[in-house]
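We now fix the convention by which a protein and its fold are recorded. The integers have meaning only within a learned vocabulary of local backbone shapes. The record below shows the convention in full.
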Amino acid sequence: MEWFIELITGSGIAHSILVLALVISVGLLLGKIKIFGISLGTTWILFFGIFLGHLGLAIDPDVLHFLKEFGLILFIFSIGMQVGPSFFSSFKQGGITLNLLASGVVILGVITTVVIHLVTQIPIATMVGILSGAVTNTPGLGAAQQTYTDATGALDPNIATAYAVAYPLGVVGIIMSLVLFRYIFRINFARENNRLDDQDESKMTEAHMFSLQVKNPSLFGKNIREIKQLIEKEFVISRVLHSQTGLLAVPQTNTMLYENDKMLVVSNLKNIEMIEALIGQRIDMDREEWNKLDSQLVSRRISISKSEINGRSIGNLRLRNMFGINITRVNRAGVDLIADSRLQLQIGDRVTVVGSEEAIANVEKFLGNSMKRLREPNLISIFIGIALGVLVGSIPFMFPGIPQPVKLGLAGGPLIVAILISKFGPRYKLVTYTTMSANLMLREIGIAIFLACVGLGAGGNFVETVINGGYTWIGYGVIITVIPLLIIGIIGRKVCKLNYFTLMGLLAGSMTDPPALSYANTTAGNDIPSVSYATVYPLTMFLRVITAQLLILIFL
């Protein structure tokens, strides 16, 4: 039994891995427990780590520090890779309003934290821990810990303790605020759904198929290239049924159109009326009728899996001229996009191709269509991104009035690089595609390791700290949680006239809080909260990480 005692109480690598695995596995099991339908999820890893740390189980400090930072990098980088493609597009149209409101939640939280710090004289490092727990933002906790260590050369366990104390009521406070707004604004779900249908912008921009008959005399005898130059709208002609010959064809750029020719067009709802006015009469002819006209033509979805296709535009590939086929739609992340010639394809895109069986088979070989290839992780881009993230995070920036240089750190650097790589990587032939399950696995492993290490490090003095006044941190955390949500929630509803479902996703995203998003989705019965959550999440995550560091550096 000596070997077992040594394994439990020792300090070697085997001991460290055993303790870490024990904390994570038990924490995840506890995370399945729900109280009033609410679960703290992976945060139980932190609490169980604190419990074992309080009992005296510990890991070598150097090993603990390495594992904690590496776990944080994996977690942050995976988040950046996930949200990167939508980060810049989130500022378009209504996304600007949502991001401004979410930034308001962040700024008000920071102001509330500073006021409490000045009034109570609680150390700023502890207050940043309370702030991170109150807004349920783990990366902010990691950024604060690292910045404090860089600035002082020492660790402050109170940061993690304050986070753990404030976190549970942070989760509850966000959800209770959403419930409160439902009664304050007297929300009627039927009315909200009707308003949603009237304002649904995504339905106007997604690809739709419709049939037209050529009636405009000025287009008779013109080819498709000339017609597309006349009509400066995004649309694709999938098939043409010539009225004179009765032949169905996959249109080429030099295909001529004549009176009463019928065509199957792919465009968005915004453009349909304009295209109809310029080409001709809209007819009641669905896709099935088109398919029955010629059994030689088939439509098939092909996945892009060859790296040499990554980042190239549809027009640049010249598939229509090479194979005699037509790409009508591109499905990316579950959304159908119009196959405009300028659209750049990415690994993982699924293109809808129309043509003969033989032509489609040739296109399939050209584009890849290998599910095995898509399931393989692209580790090169991941580790290049991590290396660049660490490099960017280590660059010091001097700001007037701040004695210490500001660094993006091991939280901010990888986050920014991951966002940039996932968005712009395909342009430079860098394959950044990973399956959702692979990204989720990497993210969950990273956050589990990080939380376990934070809990074990903070557990030694947790109970003593709470007894000696730390219980007041719970109240301060509730204030930091509720005040910004109430103010921005009222502004969002009364001033910006946001739909209640959108407002729920906005507030959950501004707190980067998955349990609140889960509650919002369940309550709404649709995915509207998820859309607004994803719209504000990237910018909010970035601001949470940066403001946590700035608070430490300015007030330390």
